[in-house]
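Title: Prediction job returns without error message
Component: structure pipeline
Severity: low
Priority: P3
Assignee: unassigned

Description:
Job completed but the reporter wants confirmation the result is attached to the right record. Sequence as submitted:
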Amino acid sequence: MTLDAYLRVRVDAINRFLEQLGDRPDFRQEVPPVLREAMNYSLLAGGKRIRPLLTLAAAEAVSGQWEKWLPFAAAIELVHTYSLIHDDLPAMDDDDFRRGKPTNHKVFGEAMAILAGDALLTHAFTLIARAGREQDVDADIVLQVMEELSWAAGPAGMVGGQVLDLRAADGSGVPVEGDAASLLEQIHRKKTAALIRACVRIGGLLGQANAQQLHALSVYGLHLGLAFQIRDDLLDLTGETALMGKTAGSDQRAGKLTYPRLFGVEQTVRLVQEHTEAAKQALQAVNIQGQWLLEIANRLAERLS
């Protein structure tokens, strides 16, 4: 099987699951229609589904199974989508396009966009709790999954990273010249790498990885997350809006701290390669069926969107 075929099967399964989320009678009955519409507008707008893919691939690498873990992977996509809606708000990154469409607040207004993001974030944990109960997953594993996801998405992870990103953009958080690179890595670790690391750790936990395997997945996820975000910095400078599905050059216009701004394009490309290799080496050092995780790392390092 080729990587494209592997990804297509799993992305199709993820998308089908997400499309069916709103069909539960209790959800349709209790959630206001306009809120359902705003949630689905961003959730079903396409996207590469990288984070749930990584969760499924990690679980499969240690257990050989992936389909039964779709609800947990979908929950991570809900959290990711919430973060995109809120990041795009005028008070944050003030972006007009996401995944090739007007951003949520441009369609539904700022108040409804905030509420749609809140709803996606909280509903993610409903999905995890229900899936754990319905599939009779060990309660301790379910709690560990919740802890991993909430920590990565919260003040020590994505939220904290966004705070540092905002302060660095307006100059108030940028330290003396020699520490700018350290600040930038901290932003990327929190804002992007924390959730990607959590994705593969959650997959490992669900697949009952041993301690050595879980550590390898953690290192893989951290370096993959850094490579992913550094590549994103590069694409903001060199990419095309039509391919990316969001406005190219927005980081530059906002005066954000980025790797190309600090190191130039050539060194930024090298850093993507270095983190990608570190991610792959972590998996190759342990007994894990990580072929697809390795191939995904290579693909993400070369992506154009």
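Comment from assignee: result matches the submitted record. The first strand starts at residue 97 and ends at 98.
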